[in-house]
Structure prediction request, 106 residues.
Amino acid sequence: MSFSTPPYAPSRPTFFVSALAVAPGNGKSMLSIENAAGSGRILRLVAVQTYNVQTTAVVGVNARFDLVRFATHAAGTLLTAATNDTTNSLSTGITARTDATLTGEV
Prediction:
């Protein structure tokens, strides 16, 4: 997957994260992004995109995606954020995971 500079990208550091080939499941966190206390950063979520890339037939209802706020995430697979400007660095207090365990959902 390649990324191009979106028209909304300001002069501030902009990052992208994607989780590819993640199978949907009940109670599963498809993608979580945590901005831990002490990161010194404010995150602005500009866009969320989901794609239905089924590799097998699905019987029944399509998967539902919810956007929720949570306190922390743990376990799962750590994802690496990409940026268009290699001089930008992401705070270590900001992490993204797939299939994570979420606590403190609001």
User: Anything to note?
Assistant: The radius of gyration is 15 Å. The chain has a mean pLDDT of 84. The chain is about 0% helix and 20% strand.
